[in-house]
Every structure is written in C-alpha cells, then in structure tokens.
Amino acid sequence: MKKTIEQAIDRNAERFKQISAYIGANPELGNEEFLAARKLTDELEFHGFQVERGTIGLETAFIASYDSGKPGPVVAFLSEYDALPELGHACGHHLICMMSIGAAVGLKAVVDEAGGSIRVYGTPAEETKGAKVPMAAEGLFDDVDFALMAHPFYVYERSGSSLAMDALQFDFFGRAAHAAASPHDGINALDAVLQLFGAINALRQQLHDDVRIHGIVTEGGKAANIIPDHATAQFYVRAATRQRTDETVRKVLKCAEGAALQTGCTWKVSNYEYSYDELMTNETLSAVYERNLLAMGIAPDQIEFGKDHGSLDLGNVSRRCPTIHPFVKVVDEPHNLHTREFRDLAMEERALDAMIFTAKTLAFTAYDVIAEPGVLQAIRDEFAAKRQNG
Length: 390
Fold this sequence. Notes:
Blueprint: H1 2-11, H2 13-25, H3 34-46, E1 50-53, E2 62-67, E3 74-79, H4 93-114, E4 117-122, H5 132-137, E5 146-148, E6 151-153, E7 156-157, E8 164-173, H6 189-203, E9 212-219, E10 230-239, H7 242-263, E11 266-271, H8 283-295, E12 303-304, H9 314-318, E13 323-324, E14 327-329, H10 340-345, H11 349-371, H12 373-388
Parallel strand pairs: 3-4, 3-5, 5-13, 6-14, 7-12
Antiparallel strand pairs: 1-2, 2-4, 8-10, 8-11, 9-10
Helix pairs in contact: 1-4, 1-11, 2-4, 2-11, 4-11, 6-7, 8-11, 11-12
Organism: Paenibacillus contaminans
GO molecular function: dipeptidase activity; para-aminobenzoyl-glutamate hydrolase activity
Keywords: Hydrolase
C-alpha cells in the first residue's frame, strides 16, 4: 500500500513542484489568494476530487473531497497558501499547500481499498484573519477523525504547542483643542494610549512567563498643535492556554479603563482579528507521524521536541478533531521564518524535494491510522480526554 502511495506522489511530483513554484513566485495576501486557490482546486479536480469553492462565503476557501464508499475514518489535510506583506512566501505556505495536496493524492491511490474518505481544506489568511477559526466555528471539522499538516522550517520538530491569542483594538475619544492657545479645553486621547502602554508595561512584572503582550499605535493625532481627540492602539495578548489568555485580557482591560479615567477619555475595545486557541497536539497521532519519519530515513537525533512558534489558527481546529502540526526541514541553513533569506531558500529545488518527501510522510501516517483501528481508537480516546480536561 505504501509503495502505491509513494508511486502516486512520485508520478505527479513535477506537477506539484511546478504549482508550488508558481504560487511562490506569485504571492497573494490573505483572502486575496485567487491565483493560488484556482491552481489548487483545478489540480484537485484533475485528480478526481469533488471541490466546493467559496466555503462559508470566503472566496478563496475550499473543501475538496473524495469518498471511497467504504467504512473508515475521515482524514483531513489542511492547506495554507497566503503570503506575507512585502516578504512574499517567507513562511513557506507555497510548500504547505502542496504537501497536503500531494499527501491527499497519494492516499487516494489506496483509499478505495483501505476505506474511509479524504478531505483537503483550503484555509486562507493564516497570517492574519485565519479562516480555520470561522471554519471550525461552523462545525466543518466536527466529523473529521483526524487532521494533518506540516510546516516548513530548518529542522525537524515534533508537533508541539502554540499560544492562544486575542487581537485587541483600543479606541480612546477625547476633545480637540488648540494645543497652545486653549489646551485647557482639550482632552488628550493620545495620552490615554500612552497611559495604556505604561500600565501594560508595569503589568508584565506580575504575569506568567508564557504570557506575551505586544502592541502598536495606529492613530495618534493629526497635527502637533491639535490635542488629539481620537487615538488607537492594537495589541496581541497571548498565553499558553485560552484560560490564561482570557485572564490576561481581563487585566489589560482594567489597564485601559484606568487610562481612560486618568485622562478623562471615553473608550471602547474590539477584536480586529479572530481569536486563536492554543494548539492541542494529539500525541498518539504525532507518534505515528514520527514513526514514519524515522522509517523514511530521518535519524532520531535529527528530530527535535516540538516548540511554541507563536499563534496558529490551527489551534481552533485542534479543539474540534485530533490534529498535528510538525515542522519539517526544507532548508539546510538555520534561517528563521518570516525572513527574506528563508523565502529565497524555500523556492530552491532542495525545498521542493523536501515538500515531496513530506507529502509522502503525511500520506503514510494517514494510511497507518486507517489500517490500524486500535491506533485510531487511541487517537480518539486521547482527544476525548484532553477535551474533557479543558
């Protein structure tokens, strides 16, 4: 069976590489990935998948499905394809999408015999307003038995964790006045923003080590001789768990309330991006993936423990179905994500070869779970226990 999977992926490897290179050379921002979505959905249809475009009203989202007609689990491969402003595909999403599609095509070669069904979820805008959040909220993963994806990096890492996150915007409203002629008539909204930053900086001393709060001023006034009547700041508030993130947000809101009271401003808070939950790795599924990675020739000492790399909209999926998100080595030099150096190296043949290698590893992992009912049950049991424990 695995030989058949490998042959199916190898047979299409050059097609997959060409599509990945095309997407890499034509970067599109989140929810604007029209070229990428068209390329990916056309390719899935070419391989016999039924494709739904514009999922939940998002123009560049899609779900591609193939059902064997036999009993078995629903396997989900997640595809990302948005780029970063100015940096292009410096996070390697042009590789991620074809890792998942390659894995789906490989698994399809045996699923008629093995049983079950395959879905590829096209999930736009991972870097900003991650589509996995509303897709999860709509219940699109609730009947999935397990979900897989892999992320390019400069080392191999087990599926680890991520930080839950809230994206908060604070708007303060004061009263404009001439800063020299009648400052006593003004209420300075920018002062409220500055007080907020000061209060948050003081708050950091009493926070847990896993908490991260970072922000910017997006509006601070129009001219130096006019007391600002409106000022805005945006913050990410992150922590290792949703519970701790919520606790921290409540403290940050108190800081904003205090800033408004001190300056005489009114204020409001809103979410300018979706809230992300932490990634809940399914360790049983992760162990199956690692077993295949070892079988593919990666030495145990080359596979590092999973780390926290920030926040992922995949965290919301992991609360709905068993999920893994390992990191895979696609470049030979230690360059970090979101850099021009990583972007350029991730377009080279070495990275494209690693993409094909990872597609095989993901497909082998999915096949093992289908073929070993006891493993699938263990995955389900772990997922149920973690959900029950919060």
